[in-house]
Design a protein that fits this description.
The structure is a single chain. Helices cover 19% and strands 40% of the residues. The protein is built from 3 helices and 8 strands, in the order E-H-E-E-E-E-H-E-E-E-H. The chain has helices spanning 13-23, 77-86, 126-129; strands at residues 5-10, 27-33, 39-47, 50-56, 70-73, 91-97, 104-109, 115-120. Strands 1-4-3-2 form a 4-stranded mixed beta sheet, covered by helices on one side. A 4-stranded mixed beta sheet has the order 5-8-7-6, covered by helices on one side. Strand 3 (39-47) and strand 4 form a beta hairpin. It starts with a strand and ends with a helix.
C-alpha cells in the first residue's frame, strides 16, 4: 500500500500553489471542475503516483474529520530547508534529530495553517527496520 494523496481545502489557491509548487517543488498535474464547470479541485503531483488535492475554499466539500499533519519524506533535509528559507517560509522549528528514532525533522505550516513535517529517515531508524 502507498500514499495516494492528501486533501486540503485552501483559502487562496494561488498562494497555496506557490507554496507547494514554488517552495516545495511539487508539479501542477491537472484540474477537476465541478458539475457546472467551476473550479473545484487542483491536483499537484508530489512524485509518481502521489498527489496533493487542493479544494477551492467554499467548494461545498463536507468536513470529514480531524487533521494532525502531513509528513513528507526527503533524502536531503538540509538542502530542502535551504530551499524553503530562500522562499521565505517560516519554520516552526529548525532541523532536529530525534533522540528516539535518529531521524532528522522540521516543521512548517502551509498558507492555510496546515502543519507539515519534513523527515529524513536514518538508516537505523525504526521506520527503515520495519
Amino acid at each position: 500500500m502507498n500514499l495516494s494523496h492528501a486533501a486540503f481545502e485552501v483559502k487562496d489557491m494561488d498562494r497555496s500553489v506557490e507554496f507547494y509548487c514554488g517552495a516545495l517543488g511539487f508539479k501542477e498535474a491537472f484540474d477537476l471542475p465541478d458539475e457546472k464547470g467551476n473550479p473545484y479541485i487542483k491536483y499537484l503531483k508530489i512524485c509518481d503516483g502521489q498527489f496533493l488535492e487542493l479544494f477551492y475554499h467554499g467548494s461545498g466539500r463536507p468536513s470529514e474529520g480531524s487533521y494532525s499533519h502531513l509528513c513528507l519524506e526527503t533524502d536531503d533535509i538540509f538542502a530542502l530547508a535551504d530551499r524553503l528559507k530562500r522562499h521565505n517560509i517560516e519554520f516552526d522549528q529548525e532541523i532536529i534529530q530525534s533522540q528516539r528514532t535518529k531521524n532528522y525533522q522540521f516543521w512548517v505550516h502551509d498558507p492555510d495553517g496546515n502543519r507539515i513535517e519534513f523527515l529524513q529517515l536514518d538508516p537505523n531508524s525504526p521506520q527503515r527496520k520495519a
